[in-house]
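Researcher: Here's the sequence for the chain we discussed earlier.
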Amino acid sequence: MRAAYYERTGAAREVLQLGELPTPEPGPGEVLVRLVTSGVNPSDVKSRAGLRSKELPFPRIVPHSDGAGVIDAIGEGVAAARLGERVWTWNAAWKRPFGTAAQFVVLPAEQAVRLPDGVGFDAGACLGIPALTALHAVRMDGGVAGKSVLVTGGAGAVGHYAVQMARLAGARQVIATVSSEEKARLAREAGAAVTIDYRGEDVAARVQQATGGEGVDRVIEVDFAANVNSSLAAVKPEGDIVVYGSGKPEIAVPFFPTILKNVRLRFFIVYNLLPADRAAAIEQLTAWLRDGRLQHRIAARLPLAQIAQAHELVESGRALGNVVLMVD
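Model: Thanks. This is the structure I predict for it:
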């Protein structure tokens, strides 16, 4: 099979290779997915660059956890009815050497989720990390029904889904931070009632103005290191700050502003969701997909041979949405 891979960390053009690897075979409880698309996420880029560790956990890594395609073969114990099923994948490259940047991937059957009819394979490659991250941030700790929500980075891959999902989950008001008028338009189209340009506006002051001086019930935070002070000032007493990302490995949290508001800080990474939380999120996501309730923002569709360019685009931060490789 044709696959992209790397055997050392470094710059995308220096370490990513394209070549032929043996086509894997599914074992008991596994499925073989013939991939059509592969999603490129910031975590994929950081792992390849060696930002988390210079040491590879495996001698050769086929990157990317997200993808979509068709089940081509099944292992023992998997229902025969799943042959030919359109699916999307999650955690394909998490603690595994072989991800979705290839023509085929073998996965435990539960990590290949049925893709509803009418949902494209390109959208399917955006679900495992961006959509599930957004949905868990919205659903956790009782959800956001009747609450006000601030989504930082409201036009990003996760933020764009989070704005939509907060509205679908019953939030009474969704506010989004953005960095350009084009991104503000995207966030408003997704359902944000208020957009704030964090480059030139006081985010906390605008939030207080938009909420009648109360602050928001929940902040869904893309970069807590950069936004810790503004998010703490924007959240109301007894409010939640749900953190799924940070631009720095260590964050200085001011103690007194946090404790005086009784702020609840929640951190999570989508790879480690509890099985019950993941199952509930997938069930809700499937229902919204089936009903056509979600917008999918694809910033770029590139062939597998241009994987280095795809990684560079994600690294640059210029992509307005998800970057997807067309594998087949």
